[in-house]
Amino acid sequence: MCNTQGRLDGKVAIVTGGSSGIGFEAAKNLARRGAKVVIASRNETKLIRARNRIQYVTGNVNVAYRVLDLGSLKSVRSFAHDTLNSGERLDVLVNNAGALGLPDRLSEDGLNLAMQVNYFGTFLLTFLLLPLLKASAPSRIINGVAVAMYIGQLDYDHWNDIGRYSPVQAMANAKLAMDLFNAELSRRLEGTDVTANTYDPYIVKDTDILNNMEGLLKDISQLFVDLVGQPKEDVGKQIAVLAADPKMANISGRHYKFCHEWINHWLAYDTEVTQQLWEESKKVVRLTEDEDWET
Question: What are all long-range contacts of 184-191, with beta carbons under 8 Å and residues at least 24 apart?
Fold first, then answer.
């Protein structure tokens, strides 16, 4: 669907959710372009297999893995700490990880699990890694969203409630938060030579996105995905364009789909809304004084 001749030799990229599906395809594509790629997810066995496979098919031995569970703020902090202390640069951060149909419960941090896995964990990870991204500039942040964001809502008094949202609505709320976070992030990065853009993978075949669902709903969803979904390899190419194409060097705050700029959510242009989300998100993940580089 799209291609770029852009190379990433000497660059370091992190891909969350990189052990399977879209993340695996994106990581494989970036490795082919010469980047050192770090894939991240919570299953170490799958990570090892994915690393070995990417090394084999690309011939790039500079593929590593680190365990990351976005459903645990402790795990996110540990991952960020290890990355910051690795002595390496960070040129590309692909925030791809997410999950649909998670149990309607609170995480170990007392947060709505779906919101934490699909937004809060990524917000904290990105915030903690921003000093390294700035030091490595020019660098790029690529945030995955979904078409469901257009029906999302943000109610800060209730966004961690249990029994309030359906699986689809919970995903929609989280992806709306991701999109507005990206808009505010891009504004705060002006003049730093760090860019932040979103991509919508639409519907993708052969991924683990439906693994947490069950029964008739899963069967119907799977049939729909099989009928209209695009190959995950194509989405990997789309992410690679955002990560490596020279034409994207100075483009930030945009939303992409099918390798073209797409209509963004209208709230992304409301700075009062995006600023409030930023501050509320910092409260939720309980940033310490040492972590909050903004202060």
Answer: 184/271, 184/274, 184/275, 184/277, 184/278, 185/126, 185/141, 186/252, 186/253, 187/253, 187/271, 187/274, 188/278, 189/252, 190/252
Pairing of strands 92-95, 255-257: unpaired
Phi, psi of 36 (to 5 degrees): -80, 125
Instruction: Give the pLDDT score at 220.
Output: 56
pTM for the predicted model, two decimal places: 0.92
Quick check: 245 and 80 in contact, CB under 8 A? Answer: no
Strand partners, 60: none
Domains and CATH numbers, the chain: 12-202+231-282 (3.40.50.720)
Those residues whose C-beta lies under 8 Å from the C-beta of residue 41, and which sit 6 or more positions away, are: 16, 17, 18, 19, 20, 23, 47, 67, 68, 97
Give counts: helices (H), strands (E), the chain.
Answer: 9, 8
Tell me: the pLDDT tens digits for 218-268?
Answer: 555 555 456 655 677 888 999 999 999 999 999 999 999 988 999 999 999
Q: In the numeric block, which tokens belong to residue 191? A: 């003049």
17 sits in the region (left: phi over 0; alpha: psi -120 to 50; else beta) called left
- Measured distance CA(128)–CA(122) in Å, rounded: 10
pLDDT beyond 60 at 214: no
Residues in the chain: 295
Residue ranges of the alpha helices (H) in 189-255? 215-228, 232-244
- Quick one: tokens of 104? 């309607």
